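Hi P.,

Sorry for the delay on this. The queue was packed all week, but I finally got your sequence through. Input first:
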Amino acid sequence: MAPTFSNPIKIIFFSMLLLITINLANSQPNRSTLVFYMQDVGKGPKATVSPVIGIKDKVWSYNTFGTIFVVDDPIRLSASPTSTQIGSAQGVITVTSQDGANVNIVLSIVFNNAQYSGSTLEIQGTSRQRENLRELSVVGGTGRFRFAKGFIVFETISYDGSNNQSVIRLTITLETP
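Then the structure:
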């Protein structure tokens, strides 16, 4: 014969279950999409990305396994280099595949504009750099983006190989509590 529970225990159990259900229903995340543009300069006195270390006796490049870059790219409202800067993308890029096709990115988008000043978004993941659209994870944030999660799509809008400059559209889809 199955054990029976007294009425007070049943009432407490069902009350707790009801509260949990209500809390889950009321805690739907807010979803938003932000679009910004990253200006990346790899050569010259105003370079915003630079190799800092690599494998001895190999050329340090985006195609060479083991090369590590530091990044401090401006983030702007449009693709124009004179557009309003709202922050910087700061972090580390490491060429992690033997054939140079993939890089691992750990990047903080640090905002300095009025709307998001002091806030950050934390980006991490493998970027398949030979593809035009590269999707990485948003793993967190601070300030206005506290507890954020989501994904970011990097899309190369333009690339000038002669001076190693590119403009990359960042389409960020976020969920925040």
